[in-house]
Design a protein that fits this description.
Length: 670
Amino acid sequence: MCPSAAQSGPIDGFCRPASSPQATAAGCTRRDGAALTDASTACEMCSGGFFLFRGGCYSTKSASGSEICTAAEGGKCTTCNTKDNYIFQNRAATVTLGNECILCSDAKGADGVTGVANCNKCTAPGSAGPATCSACQEGYFLSGQTCTKCADTCATCTAANTCTSCGGSKYLLGTSCVDSSGCGNGKYADPQSNKYLECGITDCATCAYDAALQGPKCLTCTSPKIVKEETNGATTCSEIAACTQYANTGPNFLTNGNTRCALCSNVTDSTTGNQGIAHCITCQKASASTAPTCSACGNGHFLEGSACTATCGTGCATCSAKDDPNKCSTCMAGFFLVTEDANKKCVSCGDTAKGGIDGCAECLGTVGSLKCTKCKPNRKPVGTEGTQVTCEEKTCEDPTACGGTAGACEAIVIGASGEMTYYCSLCGDSTKIPIDGKCVDSNQKQQNTCENGVCTQCTNGYFLYMGGCYKLGQVPGSYMCTDQTGSCTTPTSHYFLVPGATAGQQSVLACENPVGTAVGERAYIGVEGCKTCTAPSEAPSGAMASARCTACDGSKKPSLLGSGCFTCAMDGCSHCSADGVCEACTSAEQRPNTDGKQCILCNIGGCTRCSEENQCSQCGDGYRLESNTCVSTGANLSTGAIAGISVAAVVVVGGLVGFLCWWFLCRGKA
């Protein structure tokens, strides 16, 4: 069955209902061409440009399919993608359908041809036997023609205890993975590579990783040199004489006992004589035991006594008068100078009301000649950065785009008018958390359970949705839910309740979200292009259920089963099938004609198809045709209807087809 924890299934690696447009387009059927039944666990045949691979139908044009096959015809792969040696062409004398391509890691194989367990790259065998492995998957090493597991502390290795990389909180030192405290002098634990690296700073004795520098910062130097703090944030080891001496002015000062050459702005040490002045750029110290006094402040600050105060106004780098935001001379990055009569203000580059450019983060020039040089992280730039750029398309509602590539802006929210917007599902900065779809400081979590950039449970007044906690009664939470108790209990029309969800699970999902969510061993999905829907019944354990679409976006119409949104070419049709055949008409007095190409007058109760006006040719479930009328049989749903609904509920791939394909192919290349 399709596992709820992985996005794997019969169509390009995703679970899809059998009646979905994706499954129909792929020709996912039984081997004899018949429709799948509720007992089916995989596709047995594909058609067109799709090919069968381990129970799923894949397109050579999709991301997952192109990793497996480069050319397909008649529902099977004719040329496997052997470029990177992760997969090979089956050369058996007789190749069974769906086994044209074999993964290097597939120790079971097919037709007498196999891969090697835990193998990542290989060369194909002849017409029978195992492939020749040339590289193992992560966590394994090649020993003869067997991939053997590395020691638990190793991420990769060349022998059981000869590590080449480490994972988790371990760092590579030589060929061993050790804790961060085990590096010794002259090295530091680098969290980016999980290795112990040389400090690389001349005469530095001990150092540590600095997140701001993305590299090492010296802590102590070999005697007689001392640590000197540079204006760019770096550290060097310098002679005491190279630091600003007593009674002289400079960017540094000597701390007590001549132990460090600190920046004038360093306020981390509160000891008298060792503490600098915030925002100070030059200072002097009368003697070893006295505190430094500031002589000049950084941009946007004025010297008052020996303190630097921010009095230039927001965005000002320099100004002609303190305490007056209308006297800016130059602006900080992200602002531009606007002159209004005798006043000069610094305005945000994205302030359109003042002549800025929508979505712009950095700019050059002034009103009338302003050019955007960089867009905000949540805007897509059009043009060349560094020259003229427009920032028209908003890709995320969070201004930081959820922390860039380390985060994820994948929480789909349907607005009041039906437009699709995206909010944060993961914050790239682990100190931030997604509240109301935007990454905020962790001290704003409001009793919600959130850490490491994601929320897992929400308090009363909030509900959990795609990794974040959303507040009821305000946008964007009000777009999704109208009542809650830590999880949503009453969704809006564009959403449905997830069956069986608890306070610690996502309880609401957009009708048109085709990716879905999991509740234990059960998975639930929306219908692509769906505007409004009804919730599915609880799925069987290990299976997936789809919402029933009641209205679609744009001009498309739902099928009668509500499993997809399709284009109807005829007027007056309310429901359409995947092949464009009308299934029901908008008017209660009309029915589709026999071939489903038009709606005609046919006001006969229980009738679903008419050959001509008021001439019924087909009755619905619970009725039988008698002399152009439909007579009630008094029965419940027909066997055909029950089978149809069952098929619409879920079609799944055997095992972990899509997941394993991605895991061994795509992940193996990372």
